[in-house]
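Structure ticket #2291
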Amino acid sequence: MVRRLFGTDGIRGAANREPITARTALSVAMAAGAELGRSHPHKLVVIGKDTRLSGYMLEPALTAGFASVGMDVVLLGPVPTPAVGMLTRSLRADLGVVISASHNPYDDNGIKLFGPDGFKLSDEVEKAIEARLEGDLDGALVPSDATGRVRRMEDSVGRYIEFVKSAFPRHLRLDGLKVVVDCANGAAWRVGAPVLHELGAEVIALGVEPNGYNINLRCGATAPEGICGAVVKHEADLGIALDGDADRVILADEKGRVVDGDQVMAVIARFWQQTGRLRGGGVVATVMSNLGLERYLEGLGLELVRTPVGDRYVVDAMRAGGYNVGGEQSGHVVLTDYATTGDGLIAALQVLAMLVETGQRPSALLRSFEPYPQLLRNVRFNGGQPLKSERVIAAIKYNQGLLGDSGRLLIRKSGTEPLIRIMAEGQDPVLVARVVEDLAAHIASAAAE
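Resolution: structure written out below.
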């Protein structure tokens, strides 16, 4: 069975347009509740969301769907995605749900599902849920005296703050450090500054005035120039930019230079290798991670295992191979010693702990390798199969030949947006740029046909 609803990170799309409608949310909840709640008499689901306006529409629809198939519901309110994974396990729930479109603008939204172990559902379970959606869901309805109860958890934010702080070494503090944190007007707006402040840092907080429309709007991990400028302006030691649901992080050193997920994974891997904490003999990352990271890890005697794009595939490979460090260049950093998914705050705290223990400046600590010149370009398309065009196929083959063995070319459809993503990297930045421009022109032309 081919999945039609679920992409690389749950269900996602324009809010109040299929499939992100109250009607579909109701049906998904009924199908997921029937599939995941069938083996447990308690049948409990937790639901968290970010700060998008459409969350007010989707939350009650999901709640009604779960209650109708006999599941009790705990509403967490606006909390980061990793908080839902943590609380799903902590509460012994059968299912966790996140209402979020992560780094996308406010007019998108999405539904992510977590299993009772706190990890995102597998492809197989998502297929089973879709299969139920194609059937008669009325059979899953419970008698009127067995419908689920609903309650709000008032201390969900406080529980998550304590969870995040527990990932920071107890013998260390952040006294004397000035940190800028940008919460993207998203799910971490009540979390980011308190965590850092309670650990002793002086905190400058940005992106903490959500209004339903401004999530990820010129702020957060998708617009790191904000923290770069703020770090320089306030003479801070480090900048932390989270995305809308706080499962990814981009850093800025004290000079206001961006530090991406590849550099964060590199420094954590090196430090954990030195302290005997690294498991699996390497790091798991996606095909988008820079060749410079791969070469750097090879120099440490470590392996870089590559997966398809999507943090769920990274986590699957980590669990299968016993790795405890993985992630994506875009800022998902997964540290399974602590969390079941990417957690921007926990990753940032690991870096801050290293700064305190080593006494190094971020500009020295966080530049482990020199990245190969890499260029990304997105080409929007409206239907059709531009990547199957003979002209596009020929152009891909030609340009890969130009890059040779010292470069990489990756072209793929986005799993969450109607985009074709082009990535090229190699030793010659001029050649890399020429390759990307040529391929973007060919793909755009084919998409317009």
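Closing remark: The chain has a mean pLDDT of 94.
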